[in-house]
Every structure is written in C-alpha cells, then in structure tokens.
Fold each of these.
Amino acid sequence: MEQPTPPVTVHEGLAHAPVRVMSARVKLGTRLVNLWNRRELLRNLVISDIRIKYKGSALGLLWSMLAPAFTLGIYYLVFSVFLKNGYPNYVIFLFSGLIVWNLFQNAVNSATGVIVDRAGLVKKVSFPREILPLASVGSAVIYFLIQLGVLALFLLVFHHAPDWRMLAILPITFVTLYLFASSVAIVMSAITVYLRDMKHLMEVLLQLWFWMSPVVYSYSNSLAPQIHRHGLTLLYFANPMTLLVLTFQRTFYVSTDVHSLLAGHSLIHMLPKWSAGSFFYLNVAMLGVMCVLFLVSLVIFGRLEGNFESEL
Amino acid sequence: MTVVVDVADVSKDFKIHYERHQSLKERLLHPKTGSTEDFSALKDISFQMHEGETVGILGHNGSGKSTLLKCICGVLQPTSGEIRLRGSLAALLELGAGFQLELSGRDNVYIYGAMLGFTRKRIDQIFDDIVDFSEIQHFIDTPVKFYSSGMYVRLAFAVAVNVNPDILVIDEVLAVGDERFQAKCIDRIRRFQEEGRAILLVTHSADQVRSLASRAIVLESGLMIANGPVSESLRIFREHLLGDTPSNEVNEHHNADVHIDSITTPSGTFDVQSGASMHFDVHITSATAYSGNFVLEIFTRAGVLVSRSDAQGAPINLRPGANVIGIDLPNIPLLDGVFDVNVGVLDPRGSNVKAWGEKVATLQVTYGGRQSGLVELDATIRQG
C-alpha cells in the first residue's frame, strides 16, 4: 500500500518562465494565442463529446449517419417521387448540399446552449471559454467528414465523377464554412447566457435559413433569377451558406444544365454557369469576409464573457 | 526570488439582480433591466507572492477570498487592475468540476489535465503516479458516475498535485477523504514547499494557515486588512472576529476594552523540566468590569495544536484596571521541545474573542527520559 515517496526534485527557477496577464479586457491577439495554446483541450473536448453521445448505444457512431440518411431519404421521396421534380441524380445533388447544411446546423444548434449547459465548468475552471462552442463545431466537423466519406461512396456506386478542378477549391470552401459556423456558434453561445430564449429562437431561424439556402431546389427555382433581374445579385450572397452550398453542389453534381427525367425532357438550369475560376475568386472573397467575421465574433464574445459568472 | 504572482490594484464588481429578466419576453416588457446594483467584492487588492512561498488567505464567508482566488486562477476577470502570473498554475477550486460522469476515470484524467493546461504527453508520463496517489487502481476504467464522492475527489486532487504546477492554489479542499488521505495531501503540500513551489492557501481555519503558511493575508469585505507574518495576521483576523459580529449583549460587554499585557512566571524563565509543575501569571488590563472565559493554547513549533484548555466552568472576573490571571500546570507531560503559548479572553459563550495574545511565551521543555514524541505516556510494557 505505502509507496516510497519519490525523491525531492529541486524546482528549476522561474526567472525565465513566460508571464500571463489577467485583466479586464483580453486583447484579440492574446485571445487567439490562448486558443492556439489550448488546442489540446479542444481536441479532448471534441473526442469526449462524441464518445459521450454514443456511449452505451448499440449502433454507436452509426447513429450520426442515420439522421442525415433519413433526411436525405425523405427529401428524395417527397421531391423526386411524390412531387416529381424530374432532376436526374437528385440524391447526389441533395446530398452534396445537405452535408454543408448539416455541418452548419449541428454546430450552431449544439453550440447555442453549450455555455449554459456547462455552467459548472465555466464557473470553476479556467480556460478560454470560446473553446466550448468551438468544440461543438469540432464534433460537427467530425460528422461532416463521415458524411463526406459516404458521399464519396455514393459517387463510386453511381459512377458519378466529380469536377476535379472544383475539387481543388473545396479546401478553401471548407475553411470558409468552418469559420462561418464557428463565428455564429461563438456569438450565439455567449448571447444565450443572457437570453435563454435564443436556443428556441435559433431552432426556428435555422428552419427558415435552410429553406432560404438552395439545398433542395435548383438554381433556377431559387430567388437568384428574380434578384438578378433587379440587379441585386450581391444580395443573394448575403446568405453565406448560398455560395458554400453551390460550390459543393457544383463540385459533386457537376452539371449546370440537365434534361428533365419527365416527359418532354425539358432543360433544367440546376446550377449557375460560372467557371471554376469564378468559383475560386468568389470563395477566396468569402474566406476573407469570414476571417473578419471570426475575429469580430471573438471580440463580441470577449465583451460578453465578463459577466458570465453572475448570469449563470 | 522571482515574483510568481503579482496582484496589482485588483477590483471586482458584481451586478446583483433583484429581478432576473432572462427571457426575451421579459427583456422586451422590462427594457430597463432596472433593479440591479453594483456590489464590489474586491477593492484595490495588491500583493505579491514569491517563488517558494506559501501564503494563506484568511477571511470570513463573503470577505471576497474566493473571488480573489478565482481572479488569480483566471476563472473571473477583474473589473480593473491586473494579475501577472509566472509559470504554470493548478487550482484545487472545486475538485472534479470538469469531470464527465459518463467517461472512465482514465479519460477524465486526460481531460482534467488538459483543462489545467497540460499536454497529453505530460499526463502520459505521470499517469501511474496519479493513479497510485488516488488509490483507485481497480476502478480507473470505470465510468466516474459510479465513483463514491471520496474516490471522485481523490482522483481530482491526484491530477492537480501530480502535474507539478509552479503555483498551486488550494481552496478549502483539505477536508477531503479520510484522515489518512488528508495526511497524505498535507504531506504532498509539504513536499511542494521543499521543492520551492509557490502555494496559495485559502481557508478559514487558522490552524491550517499556522501549520502551512509562511505569510498570511486577511480579507474583510473586499479589503485587504493584513498582509504579513502569520502570527501578526492571525491576531488581526481574530480581532476582526470580534469587531463585526453583531452583538445584542449588554453594551458594557461590547465596550469592554480588554488587553493582554504580558505573561510571567515566578522564576522569570519559561524553561521547564518535563514532569515538573509550572505557574503562569497573565497580566490583563481591562477598562471596565468584564466576566468571560479564558483560553490557553499550546502549539509545537510546526504549528500542531498540543492542547487547548479553557475556564468554561468558572468564568474569570476582570476588574477595571490591572488584573492577574493565574494558570497552574501541575505536571507538564510534554517531552523535549520548544512550544508556543497563546492566551485569550473570550465572551462567556466562548464564541467571540475579546483579547488575544498570540505566542506570548515560548516554553522550553527539557526531558531526560527515553521516550520520544510529544507527550509522556507513562506506559508500562510487560509480558501478557
């Protein structure tokens, strides 16, 4: 039972150890450095988050596939079988847009209440609080990657080749998506501490947002042509999800114009006819906007986190 | 010596809500959140801690000591002022606050370690030490939700002390586990001290501060009222114990100005042979007549309380002016050593201190026998 006490190690001097400063306002640069220094905690939180979610369930991680599979199946049934939209390879069109949307929705939904839910931790342990919403986004990214794998499997099964030039742009799109989801997640998690309704409000808003993004319908059926007629194309991209969804669809669905499966075989304008180059520039521009948005979200979070203790 | 903790003009205000408006409807109906009030929990606190120092923070509930600690640990941001820390810090605030109930002890060790800011590699190196220290080898792969509260706290404590932080912050957590585990914790804290690490200890137990700290800070409603040697700070702490207790006793009691002047022996020396008898005279000046209790405490140099006796049955009656209280010790059972003597005058119920003499005398006991330890037991050992 008794173990010999280890020899006393002489403690090395601290004269050159780095100094940490705690004051009322943490500067943005310091916030970023702190986040980077605690990336291990972020990784740990993501892993434990996923493990807890499926602990004791027989199907485990498979559940993370079943929910999106059901959504996919239902939309396919409703739009392709019952409403007969006539889009060829509709599953691939739908899936390539849905995985983008799912990442965003999972991240924002789970991040919104995360600081309130982990109040015990926030009030007792010191760490950059942004890590909590970022961990929610991290889990969503893991599910996204799994779904991306399944999408690849679909492409193989259907002998559907992606657009390789577009595929090269996709990492930029992914980072943009990650930054956008993180920004919304960070701000929402902080606001929810002060306004508990946000959780419910966000669920409703996300529904509306989903139908405003061109995930289930073609480009020609979207608001884009009407807006374009009034010369307000930029307005269409006010919803950042639009460009992200379109880029994914363009990469995996490829065709911009297809013949309908219905009698008459009329031409359907599925996706905008921009070149890969245009997509590249649009994505880079969006990435720039998202970088700024991410920094802004950190500043907002910093302003709000000072009173977390008395609100929780 | 390097300064490891530098607290500079730190203040912390809280908003107190009388009515909380946390839903959107309430916020819209009551746009002016109205009924809030600022409460300042810390007011311009400044102090420094050096490498290898153990500092105790004393204060009553609500004196701001936990707020100060949370600011130092980074859980709270100060409203103004800043705190500079050098080196790594591990805090034993609420043990096991970061534990995930569904996950095993092993997983939680890594998560908790990461919360404290240590890498997976570092935890790998000390994992066995942590498990040994916590004494839950058989349950390390069991989900934490099945742990007893003692196991839970032991595991958290084991992580925090085994990551070997440069600064260890302890908040009233030494009351964990059974006595044997407590002794182990104290032992580990002493080793930390030998290794020259800094320890910040928050407690309202004067005994703990006396036995562990080299310096003590006293907080009183957000203000730092003492920062100095333990004995001096303890004196101030005790004086404030009587200062702010609302007293509905007769006024003359409250106004009674009692002061302990000195303590003397007939022989003029405090050197005594073990087993001999001894007499102390305590000289007390009182402004008014006062009737109360009297306490005598004897401590070892390491701060262990050997004995505390009082005159509970027969109150002492002080007359206005100079008084002498006699203490008879018929047969001193102490073995070889140096002992500190504290005396004090308390109110009749023994809850309020009227006057206190901290370390008013030093007892030198010499012993010629063969026993070792603190006291003479007079044990006879024979064949049964």
Amino acid sequence: MGIQFKQVTKRYGGADSPLVVQGIDFVVPKGSLTTILGPSGCGKTTTLRMIAGLEAPTGGQISIDGVDVTHLGPSERNVSMVFQSYALFPHMNVIGNVRYGLDVSGVHKTEALERAHKSLALVGLAGYEERLPSELSGGQQQRVALARALVLEPSVLLFDEPLSNLDARLRRSMRDEIRHLQQRLGLTVAYVTHDQSEALAVSDQIIVMEAGRIAQAGTPQDLYERPASAFVAGFMGEAVLFDGQSLADGSVQLGPLRLLPRHPVAPGAVRAAVRPEAWLVGRELAGGEQPAQMLPAQLKQCAYLGSFFELTFETELGPVFVVSPEVERDWRIGQVLALSLPGQGVSVVAV
Amino acid sequence: MNPALRLQRALQGWVLLGLLSFALLPWYFLQQMSLMDALPGIWAGAETASGWVQSSGHGRPWLWSGLAGLLVCGLAVLVPWTARTQGWLLLLGSLIGLLGLLGSGFAIGATGWVFESLTTLWGVLPTGQYGMGWGAALVLFSLVVLLGAALARLGAFRGDVFVASAVVLCSALLALFVVYPVLRSLVAAWVDDTGAYAWMHLLERVATERVWGFGCVQGAGRCGVAWNTLWLAFITATGTTVMGTLLALWAERGNTRLAKPLNILAMLPIITPPFVVGLGLILLFGRAGLFNQALEWAFGVEPGRWFYGVFGIWLAQMFAFTPIAFMIMRGVVQGVSPSMEEAAQTLRASRMQTFWTVTLPLLKPGLANAFLVGFIESMADFGNPIIVGGQYAVLSTEIFFAIVGAALDPGMAAALALVLTGFALAVFFVQRQVLAGSSFTTVSGKGDAGVAMALPPAVLRVCRSIAGPWLLFTVVVYLFAFAGGFVQTWGRDFTFTLGHFKTAFDVQLGEFGWVFAGTAWKSLFTTLSLSAMAAPICAGLGLLMAWLLARTEFRGKAAFEFSALLTFAIPGTVLGVSYILAFNVSPVELTGTGLVIVLCFVFRNLPVGVRAGTAAFKQLDRSLDEASQMLRASTLTTLRRVVLPLLKPALVAALVYSFVRSMTTVSAVIFLVTAQYELATTYIIGRVGNGDYGVALAYCTVLMLLMSVITWGIQKLVGQRQLGRRTAASTPA
C-alpha cells in the first residue's frame, strides 16, 4: 500500500469558505506511478501538497505505507517532492543542493557526499557537482531537482507539473526518463499534470479530478476508451459530445447514424463522445443526396498540420471536429462530404 | 537524532534556562551596578538577590508562582508524553508562571499594593518590589517560549513549535513595548492630579478653544492646534505629492540622465537629521538670512521674522518629505506596464490621451498612498515645527511643551497625544484601505517587453519648469546648511572659520594621552553605540516578523500585522511621551537608562525592518522554503540555511536603515535623554535653542558625512557579494 486518501477534504479560510477538495478517496499502489489530472483549479495541486504535508487537510485521513500521516509535518513523512519551479537553492552549488537533505538529517559527511554523487550519476549529471543552478539549462536543473529528491530514498516521490517549464522536445525525453527511473527503482510516484497526453504516456493509474472531486480513476486505457462521464471523455481525448438516443436493441441512434456501443447502455437519452480521429471522411455528395449510415457535412475550415489535417464541418448534429490523415486529398471549403463512424473511438455515456 | 527527540531536548533547555535564571540571576532591576557586579550578591541583599532568595528569604512569596510554572513545564518535558498531554501541561505551567509573575508585577509596587482595593481586600503588604531585572526578564522569556510550544503541541500553528514560539514572543514584545505604553499614556488623559478617572478630565483637556478654536477663520486670534496640524499636513501632503510625482515622471519617463542625481536626492532625507533643512532655510530667510539682508540692503526693509510660521514649516517639510513622495511615485511609475500604454497607442490614442486615460488612472492608488504618507509624516514631524514654527503651534510641539514647559502637565500631553494618535490612526487606516484596493498596479514577475512611453511634450514642460527649479533650490538649501558651519556668525561676520568644528570635536593630546575635549564627542559616542545596539535587534526582529507574515498562516495574523506596522502611524512624540509615562514605574522601570532609548529606537523603526523583509520575501520563491522542508529540514534549519543566506541584502538594508534612522531620530527620544545619555540630535536642538547655529550646523555636517560613509560602506559590501556571485557564474566548470 503506497498512499491512501480516506474522505479527505480541504478548505482555505474559515468554516464558511468553499471546499477546494470535497471528500476524495483513492489509493496509489506501492511501486506504481499515478497521475492526478485535471483542469486548473480542480484541486489537484492541493491534493499533492496534502500528500507532501505542505497543507493540512480539513478532514479525513491520509496514510503512507499504512502509517497515518495526517497530522505530521513534511519533514516527518518519508516523502520527497520535485517542484514545478524546481526550487533549487540559488546560493548552493549542485552537490550542495543534492546533499542538503542528507546534511540536515544528520547523515555523516562522507556518506552524504558519496550518496549525493551516486544520485547525480543516476540522473546523468556526474561532473556537474561544482556548478551553480544558474549555470545549468532547464533540463539539467530538472535533473538536479530529481537527484535531490531521490537521494533521500523516499517511500513516495511527488512531482508537481515537472515538465511545464521545458520546451516540447525536452519534455518528451524527460518524461520518458522519469518513467524509466520510476520503473527501474520501483518508486511510488504521485504526479500532477494538466496535460492528458503526458498522463497517458507515463501512468499506471490516472485520477481525473473535476471541481474538487474525483471524476474517474483507472488505467490510461480505461479512461481513454471507457470514460465514465462526458467531462472525462472531453478532457481525455478532446472528444466532441453529441446528443443521441439509446434504442431497445442496444444500438444508439445519432442523427442518421446508428452505432453499436461497446458497452450496453440503458435505453433513453444518451450522449456520445466522439474523438476527432474516429470520423472517416468519405466521398463528396451531390446536392440533396442522403445515403444511409452517412452524415452529410459541409467543410467550413481546414488547417494543414504536416502529418494530418484538422477539419471543421457543419452538420445536422452541429459542428463536427475531424482529424484526417489524408494530407494528399484536395480539400475545398464549402464542399459537402459524407462522414461515417466505423466503430472505434466512440464512447457512449448516459445523460 | 529524530525530530521528536530534538524538540524534547530543546524544550528541556528552555525550562532549564528559566530555572537557572530564577535561581542564579538577580531578580530585580539593578539601579546602580552592572550585572557582573551584582552576581556575587544573588544570595545576599534584597537588591541583588535571585528570585529563589527573594521568595524564600526576603518576604516576596508571590515569586514562587514563577517557579511553580516552570516546574509544571519541567514535568511536561521530562518524559515524552503524547502531544496533547504535553500541550496541556505546558499550557498550564506557562500560564501559572506568566499570570502569577505579571499579575503580581502590576499589582505590587515599591511600597506595596498598587491599587487601594487590594489593600482593603488583603491588608497592607509589608514588602513591595522594584522593577523587573535580568532574572525576571529571562524567566518571563522562557515562559513565553514555552507558552508558544504549548499552543503548537495542542495543534495550533500546524504543530510547528518554532513558528508558534516566534509568534507568541513577537506578540508579547509588541504588547509590552508598543501597545502597553501607548495605551497607558492615552489613559493618562482621563486622570486628574489626584489620580481619579473621569470623562470630565478628558473633555476639559481636549474640548478647548486652544485645540479646536476657529479664531483664525473668524478673523480674531488663532486657530486651534488640531486645525493647525491638519491644515499643515494637508498642504504638505498635497505639495509633496505633486512635486514627487513630477520628479518621478521626469526621472523615469523624461529621457534624461536625472536618475542618478535624483537617487541621491531620495537618499538625503534618510541620512539627514530632520531639522537640517529647517536650519538651511533659516540661514536663507531668517532674520539674519541672506534674503532679508538683501532686502534691507536694496530697499531698506527692516528684517523680520515673517518666515517663522506656517509658511516656514511648510517649506521645510516640502524639502524634507518630497523625496519620500518621489520614492513612492517612482516605484508606481515603474510599475505601470509599458504594454498598457502601447496597447492604448495602437488603439489610436495620442500620447496626451494615453497619459490622461491610461497612465494617470493607473497611478491613482500610488498618488493616494503618497498623499497619505505625506500627511502622516507631516503630522508626526517634530524637528521642523520646533525650529521654524515660531508662533504656529502644532500638536507634536504642543505635546513637547506640555511635558517640558513651565506647565508640566502630563495629563494635557496625554490628551493632545490622544488627538494626534487619533488623526494618525485614521489616516493609517485609510492608507491601508487604499493599498489593499490597488492590486491592479502591482508588478507581476513576468517580463514585459514593452518600451515605456515618453511623456507628452506639454507634461514634460510642466515637469521641467516646476521640478527643475525645485531641485536647484534643494541643492542651494543644503549648501547653505553646510556653509553655515564654516562661518563665524551668520548674517554678521562671514569670515571662514573652523572654530565651530573645534568647539564640537576638539581632540587634544594631554598628559593622559589623547582626550576628546570637544563638547559634542560624548553625545556622538552615545548615539553611535545606542544606535549600533538597536540596529541588529530591530533588523532581526523586523525580518522575523516579515517572515512570519509572509510564510506562515495563523489565526490573528491580521491583528499581528497591524500591531507590527502600528508604530509607523504613532507619531514619535507620542511614543516618547508613552515611554516616559509607562516605564518610570514598576514592573518595567527603565526611565533614565540607555536601555529605554535602545528600546525606543527598536520599536520606532520596527516597521522599516518589517517592510524591508516583506519586500524581500515577495522576491523569494516560496517553493524554496517548501523544498527545504520537504528535504527533512526543520523550520529553524530552513531559516538558517536557506532563507537567511538568500536574504542577506535585505538584512543589510534593514540594518543600515534602522541604524541611520536611529541616529537621526529626534521626536521620540527627546523625552528620554538624560545628562548621562545625551544624543546627537537633542544636542543639536539644544544648540539651536541657544542660537548657536554654527556649532549645530557643523555637527549636522559631521553627522551627514559619517552616515554617508557608513551607508556607502555597507552598500559597497553588499555590492561585492553580488559581484562575487556573478564572476562565479561565468567560470566554466
């Protein structure tokens, strides 16, 4: 058992101020990486800071490795954290930063130095010991922050949007490196981000938060393919939501289209979340033509993005956003095309 | 050593300190001797005996409460109880000790019970007690720390013992040295000569023609001092705000090379004693001044004292406080984001329209702030009104004359202080409201690539034509103030002389080696040593409070912040009166000592330290503290190893500022000085009173040079530290 939250609530200010975190329960299994995902203001950073001990919960219980740590300060929990801004001490050099935690907990000098060197080597920064943080690039600073957190051999490692200050290219390699280290050392990690592709790439478990509650928790596949709510579907895959009708035979009617959902839904009004890559763009339709199982759509906008096109159509269901890999095709604004949904990439949630 | 054990040891240490102080230090205040002289006598006479001996052998059993409290606390830290049990025990112990000692301290004076009712209740007390001394102070200190620990163990302050103790300790200090004396002196306004309290006394003193009269409006006689004070504050605040804004706009937006000279100008009022400008103006416009002499020579006009009065004070205050308005407005002008003005200009606004519709509205909160600060400064000013005020009475000088004048009426002084404090607090509240509502001008940490708009030509012309002559005039006044120290007698005999310097700072080689024969040496050395003692305490306490305010959350924080900044609003004269009224009787008997002057320096300049710290913490990323905490460092370790090294420049700034302000302050300490502890500023005031301008100005010159050197030296030191970091940053690894 890694981290466990039981009915944890948090409010800033007096009893009449609103709850930022409204009674959440979750478990981060030992040796796994869990991301807490959500839009800004959903309470995910507050949750992480409660694990760290930087904020005290208003109610509920937090335990780490089976020990109740709800009322312990940050220095009394076996937890390390990598900050969004890295928070490297500017007046200490790299090795001074890394060994700081060992020094203040009274580890013998030679041992501290040895362990700090080891930790630096682990993140690939051997030879940078004497530099000041200001002399390092963003990626290197990130690694120092990581080495500083790892050197204490924490039972839980926390990341607060660790990649948000890096450029796109560096972000991917750093992301893979964190995942690799976590798996190699068997670390228990809680990781906060607002970027769903980052979450999908690194996680064993994803917890999506919405307005202080957990909207859904599960594996990346679960969340992407079987979202429990319209919010999760929209947040995980930029899916567009359409109103539909679930029929008695188990199929779902969506305008002229009829689909078979992967999971049975009770008859009645439903919403279908369709991801932009699920649409198949068919042939051009002549005026007034209405083929079966096809949605006539007029092209309003198209944007070329190198490996794919982003298209916006006007249909009877409303505007439809489509990603098409057909970069060779000759797209013309105003032409009417037949859209269809061959199956994958659609999830249906009850209203 | 794990954190719990470390805490246990620390608390044991505090209890031990309290017990040792109780047993081994002289309990009461030592009137004549030093601590070293008194130590052998702790087992002996009632003067020097320790708390233990006082309570067992000298008939002062109420002191046992201190020991009882400490013993209960000792029980609490003897074995590792659960946090709650330990908390309750500590709370019980520290409260027994604090309430017992403070209660008896206030209730029992030198001749027995202080209050009549207690005598009738419990009978006459055979032995009284003196003011508290070393032993009492240290026992109370440790009890206060233990009280903080108790609150933390009971779950307050997120369980952080250091934060809790720091908050409780700072609150206790503020209560004892700011709130208590001020309240005590204000209460004196209700008391008559026989010691009876009544609303009538207050009414008699406050609601008089002398305070609130409208004589000047009705064309007969003079207006009341309250109206005089308000009117002066209003015109000074208006004048300094306008002038400061013009200077700030000119320096920041005028494309001139004025920035550097203006920075020096901004530093001037910090390093000049408050009355130097007044003296310089007297040399220009006084009866023997050049202006009057020229009039007499040219037109045969009889030189008069026309300059003394409201115009003189106003002019002197304009010179003294315009730099403060300039500094405030410069910050605000810098804070106006250039991209706002660029946005306005791309929306087809002309430069003039942009200035009126964007720049000026964004400056509004700053203008209000500058006005209110000018208002407070003018009301609190003492040096200028006393030198050039003539017959124009304002509250700060009236308070002074009520205490030292022939009347010797502390009740009247207290009543006037009440009025002045009321005004100052009202303005202070308004100012806080204004600052709270002005968040839209605060500078964000984000870079702004825009280029600030140049001033519209018309506005620039106004700036130049008003602020330019003003700058020139300032330089002239300061030059005259300097020159006055070098001539025989101003107005009559303009021969160059170093005689005044010789009178004040003569050094002779006598038969016993070098002798500081000049009359000013003693006051200079006293001022330097007392200021040097006060500066580190003031800076340390100020930064600690700033840290508590910036980085911790606790209940009552707003009240804490308010009282920390309160002394900014309390006029110096009021604080001085409060100190003599509150600290000339037990339990805290300090009048006439150097300690009371040091304390006055510390708490008068405390807001400066708090502000320097607050500004520094705004620039220091909060996650640095948090990172250190996450890396298992305790709060104290974090402060010592991360916060303090990064705060060094702010610490030095606070040190310099509080030192220099202590050197130049006059209003608060003028009541506290004695023959033994005469200060530079009061010495100069005394010389001016005797009409001895030469020596006074020579002394001012020396003071300013000395402080420039000190300020420059310390800034140089800070600069080198930053330079070292930059060179280190450029060395390749």
